[in-house]
């Protein structure tokens, strides 16, 4: 029996609202929820159309085994499974997508992995980081603190915790 080798791509869909004025911070307020009607099936159809547009019949055929395993319209995050031979083509096609459901969008690939577990861990880590930053904006800080960065083992004191 031959083993099917796949790659899992963690993607985020960003919706830029307006360009930053000259001389200001170039980061755009991208994080908005996706339209509620954007489901796994509709996202899969959009990706297949993009592959067919960018790579023709070959791209459409290569997308035959592509599946959207997870998509959350609230966080605009998704996990896509594709064969190992075609993940770069899918990545290129996602990069060239300029709109999703008639709305200007930027699709970025955050992580590529051979197992879905590693992609799920990264998605969870990014969601927790987003919550932490959102709490910091309205509360006591501005997100990550210097002590959070230095505290690599999570016990509240800086250092690795293995020194005596």
From TrEMBL:
<comment type="similarity">
    <text>Belongs to the eukaryotic/archaeal RNase P protein component 2 family.</text>
</comment>
<dbReference type="InterPro" id="IPR038085">
    <property type="entry name" value="Rnp2-like_sf"/>
</dbReference>
<dbReference type="GO" id="GO:0030681">
    <property type="term" value="C:multimeric ribonuclease P complex"/>
</dbReference>
<dbReference type="GO" id="GO:0033204">
    <property type="term" value="F:ribonuclease P RNA binding"/>
</dbReference>
<keyword id="KW-0819">tRNA processing</keyword>
<dbReference type="InterPro" id="IPR002759">
    <property type="entry name" value="Pop5/Rpp14/Rnp2-like"/>
</dbReference>
<dbReference type="Pfam" id="PF01900">
    <property type="entry name" value="RNase_P_Rpp14"/>
</dbReference>
<dbReference type="GO" id="GO:0001682">
    <property type="term" value="P:tRNA 5'-leader removal"/>
</dbReference>
<feature type="region of interest" description="Disordered">
    <location>
        <begin position="20"/>
        <end position="39"/>
    </location>
</feature>
<dbReference type="GO" id="GO:0005730">
    <property type="term" value="C:nucleolus"/>
</dbReference>
<dbReference type="GO" id="GO:0000172">
    <property type="term" value="C:ribonuclease MRP complex"/>
</dbReference>
<protein>
    <submittedName>
        <fullName>(Perigord truffle) hypothetical protein</fullName>
    </submittedName>
</protein>
